Amino acid sequence: MTGTDDLGAVLTRLYATIESRRGGDPDASYTAKLLADGPARCAKKLGEEGVEAALAGAANDAPALAAEAADVLYHLLVLMVSVGVAPGDVAVALAAREGTSGHAEKASRARDQKKDP
What we know:
Order of helices and strands: HHHHHH
Structural class: mainly alpha
Shape: globular
Number of strands: 0
Radius of gyration: 17 Å
Largest sheet: none
Strand content: under 5%
Distance between the termini: 49 Å
Helix content: over 70%
């Protein structure tokens, strides 16, 4: 793997490519079609790919999981572009959780949900 093939660099390039497809010809680009279909369609595809990744993991099939994980990440980025969430927004959310126990973070979200009317 070269320095340009690390996951962060690949995801950054992929996000830029997906953004460039917004408003493109849906007949010429699968990504443009997904984006034209809107966030609900993008979310549905992400969910389908997530299930496939989970099944590959449950089957302990590492090559299949790697392929399905790539599909999940692609569809997650498509959904992010569709909704207007930048990678920096996700980085900020992740950074805010660093050093926090997963149990504590989950409990905090549960408390916040109870406060919402």
